[in-house]
Amino acid sequence: LEKCLMNAIKLLPDLLISQIAAGEVVERPASALKEMLENSVDAGAADITVQLVQGGIKLIRVMDNGTGISKEDIPLALARHATSKISTLEDLQQVVSLGFRGEALASIAAVSRLTLASRRAEQKHAWKVQAESGRLSPPEPVALASGTTVEMHDLYFNTPARRKFLKTEATEFSYCEETFKRIALSRPDIGFTLQHNGTVRRHLRAADPRSRIAAVLGDEFSQTSVLIDEQAADLRLWGSAALPAYSRASRDAQYFFVNGRFVRDKLITHALREAYRDVLHLDRYPAFVLFLEMKAESVDANVHPTKIEVRFRDPRALHQFVFHAIDKALATGQPASRGSVLAT
Ligand code: ADP
Ligand code: MG
């Protein structure tokens, strides 16, 4: 400690800054996958394919048919604090994209070998760069349909201390699959494919929300849940909440989205728990897929680097609203008839 105190203060090298940031953003393969998928969604992709090797530790490849990135912008996409999604504080308060911090790709590139190939529709071919330990290769032309392919190879190859925290391939795959499910639930209008070690594990065609929920969570969930659709002032809550017959031994089927973003929130969890209180045994957990929609300025997603936590402007009103919506639906609780379609 004494030695540290005697040292002069100096700015950290760029790579180290990114590696420190990566500690928050890229905890494991699944967190890198989340960032890559969110970028594809933000790019307006209609179809997204994920290929994993060894639970994502060896390779995560995400291919999309979104807008693509121009040759000039590719180095910026990999630079820290560079984003196309916001440019002012007003934008930040109104943000509708999933990303806005401009640090995900830079963080991933700091702790892996990253390649990015991208083509905008108006370009004749795609451009590809490789990044390793903060160094970027010059763009070279490659063949690619318009859109973007990002590959993350060998996560933590240069940060062995972090590599030790990775779990088995099977466990890392299950985290990745969970991430994939969350994004797929939030965007039924997008087609998604998930492959692991060369095998297709999930293939989801673009569908209406109800069909997507059934495709991801299974028919049993859909057939034992009630449809929710409540509106009050600026708030809307819709989706499916399972009847007690489909309760779980863990929180594994709890999906709550705020303006399209999967969140874990104490207040929301509490409101739901309360709504299920009379019908559910204490050691059981409710299952639900719920979408809360509110004005962008009523919720702040800029609380945590991974954005899984948000802050609400009026938590009390929100708690009441969510509680009553679910309480009412469970009280009248007829399972949704097959084939009925959720309003979107
Ligand atoms: P953020 O998403 O917060 O802007 P990222 O580091 O994740 O930051 O990405 C940086 C930029 O790279 C994005 O703002 C976007 O312009 C571009 N980008 C990244 N991934 C894609 C993609 N799949 N398609 C198109 N553009 C992308
Ligand atoms: Mg991003």
From TrEMBL:
Swiss-Prot/TrEMBL keywords: DNA damage, DNA repair
GO molecular function ontology, one term from the record: ATP-dependent DNA damage sensor activity
Name under which the protein is recorded: DNA mismatch repair protein MutL
Protein's job: This protein is involved in the repair of mismatches in DNA. It is required for dam-dependent methyl-directed DNA mismatch repair. May act as a 'molecular matchmaker', a protein that promotes the formation of a stable complex between two or more DNA-binding proteins in an ATP-dependent manner without itself being part of a final effector complex.
Entry's family note: Belongs to the DNA mismatch repair MutL/HexB family.
Superkingdom of the organism of origin: Bacteria
GO cellular component terms, semicolon-separated: mismatch repair complex
Shown segment, full-protein numbering: 17 to 360 of 639
Lineage start: Bacteria, Pseudomonadati, Pseudomonadota, Betaproteobacteria, Nitrosomonadales
The keyword DNA repair is annotated on this UniProt entry: yes
The keyword Ion transport appears for this protein: no
The DNA mismatch repair protein S5 domain, residue ranges: 213-331
